[in-house]
Design brief:
disordered N terminus, 3-stranded antiparallel β-sheet, about 475 residues, alpha/beta, pyruvate-formate lyase- activating enzyme, single chain, 9-stranded mixed β-sheet, Arc Repressor Mutant, subunit A, 16 helices
Length: about 475
């Protein structure tokens, strides 16, 4: 009887911890996070100055993110910036605007750029014809240096891709492919309006490998409306047959105040926090059984993959494009809603396609938001990146703000008591149970979030 009582108490404590941490927190693809940017600190001239300063320090190396926002169908779980249309006449004007924006950047660069990374995201990048993608990329690469160890990657929706896409992109040096699957269960796919069968997905993967793509990432999502533990297990089993090197296992971000289409789902349609945690654990166990190791937050990789090696060597990086094996400091975001990063500053482009193109037509940088980082911002950014990329970090004990320092110490004691971290000699190390709650632990050091906490939900829930 005594042992039975201990088990019940443990179960209650776990539920209490679950409820305690199922709160809105940032994903920390940037610090400061976008809601706390101060646009008064930056304009196009300050941005260009900071970009050039970092480019000079990095010998011209940069990454390019190109946002291609168009989709033919609306996926109802998606919170990305997108434009739904079947009118493919939008392709050419948009590409011309992106290329003019790139020329504006080239005209302001004080060193010749060396392109280390290109990432095509969306939207649905393969909404664009193979010919238009070839024109876009070949125009960007014209007259610039390309790093020997470059990484070019693209996000793909299998239903919108054809063999010619991979033939063209393979010739241009693309080797990394990210395929959105989410869940292979037909009912879940019907609910989120994204049907794709396994055979179509496998055909796309085979095309990519035929034309030189060597690295495959698959996106899975847990916590989707009406999703079950059984559907997750089946999806993981099918995905393993595609032989990916990496799997991104994302928590569904329910942000109906940001994405109106998500308002069709009620809380009753979504799994509870307890079930969602079960989904994460079940999926994680299945992935590990197939040889994938947990990396940072939401990501798994085979031990021979570059991302696993970067994680174990302490060289993993995180930015607006997600986790990265490179440490490129300058990211130029081209296209509507794209975010650029010079390490010491962020800027974001106009979100609406028409507004973006109108700015480009005027010859103006289409900046709608941004932030120039202070020395304190840079220190916090460094700490949060260490925790999210290495699962460990050294706590800065020399903070001038004594109240904030007390807040940090109190939070760390609570995390340690709840079994989420080890805190010894001024260093935090995540426990396995703390891995899924790394966002919460990282938020401890987010002074802007602490200082301006509001009851308004700005971020998705942590579980």
């Amino acid at each position: 009887m005594k042992g039975s009582g201990a088990k019940v108490k443990s179960k209650v404590m776990k539920q209490e911890i679950l409820e305690k941490y199922n709160k809105p927190v940032p994903r920390y693809t940037s610090y400061p996070t976008v809601p706390f940017w101060d646009f008064s600190t930056i304009d196009s001239s300050i941005w260009i100055s900071r970009m050039n300063q970092t480019l000079i320090d990095e010998n011209g190396e940069l990454a390019i993110y190109i946002h291609l926002p168009f989709c033919e169908k609306l996926c109802t779980f998606c919170a990305c910036n997108k434009r739904i249309t079947k009118n493919h006449k939008v392709e050419s004007p948009y590409i011309e605007a992106v290329l003019r924006e790139w020329q504006m950047y080239l005209a302001h660069m004080e060193v010749k750029p060396v392109i280390r990374e290109i990432h095509l995201g969306g939207g649905t990048p393969t909404f664009f014809s193979p010919e238009n993608l070839e024109y876009l990329i070949s125009s960007i690469l014209k007259g610039v240096h390309i790093a020997e160890d470059h990484e070019f990657s693209i996000e793909v929706h299998p239903n919108s891709a054809n063999e010619k896409h991979f033939e063209v992109l393979g010739k241009l040096g693309f080797r990394r492919l990210s395929v959105g699957v989410q869940d292979f269960d037909p009912f879940v796919q019907e609910v989120i309006n994204r049907y794709q069968d396994f055979d179509t997905t496998r055909e796309v993967v085979n095309w990519a490998r035929k034309y030189g793509f060597t690295d495959l990432n698959i996106d899975l999502v847990y916590g989707l409306p009406f999703q079950t533990l059984d559907s997750i297990k089946k999806s993981v089993t099918l995905v393993k047959k595609l032989n990916p090197q990496r799997i991104a296992y994302y928590s569904y971000a329910h942000v109906p105040w940001k994405s109106k289409v998500q308002r069709k789902f009620t809380k009753d349609d979504l799994p509870s926090a307890a079930l969602k945690l079960q989904m994460y654990k079940s999926g994680s166990r299945a992935l590990k059984a197939h040889g994938f190791e947990s990396i940072g937050m939401d990501h798994f990789a085979l031990k021979e993959d570059k991302m696993y090696k970067a994680y174990t060597s302490g060289n993993l990086n995180r930015n607006f494009m997600g986790y990265s094996t490179t440490n490129t400091k300058v990211i130029i975001g081209l296209g509507a809603s794209s975010i650029s990063d010079s390490w010491t500053a962020f800027v974001q482009n106009e979100k609406k396609v028409e507004d973006y193109q109108e700015c480009i037509d005027r010859g103006a940088f289409p900046i709608i938001n941004g932030h120039a980082l202070t020395e304190e911002d840079l220190q916090v950014r460094k700490q949060i990146l260490e925790l999210m990329c290495q699962s460990t970090m050294k706590v800065d004990a020399n903070h001038d703000d004594l109240a904030f320092q007390a807040h940090v110490k109190a939070r760390l004691r609570t995390f340690e008591k709840d079994g989420l971290i080890k805190f010894k000699n001024g260093t935090i190390s995540l426990e396995p149970s703390g891995q899924i709650l790394v966002r919460h632990i990282a938020s401890t050091f987010d002074k802007k979030l602490w200082g301006e906490m509001t009851n308004t939900e700005m971020f998705s829930r942590g579980i």
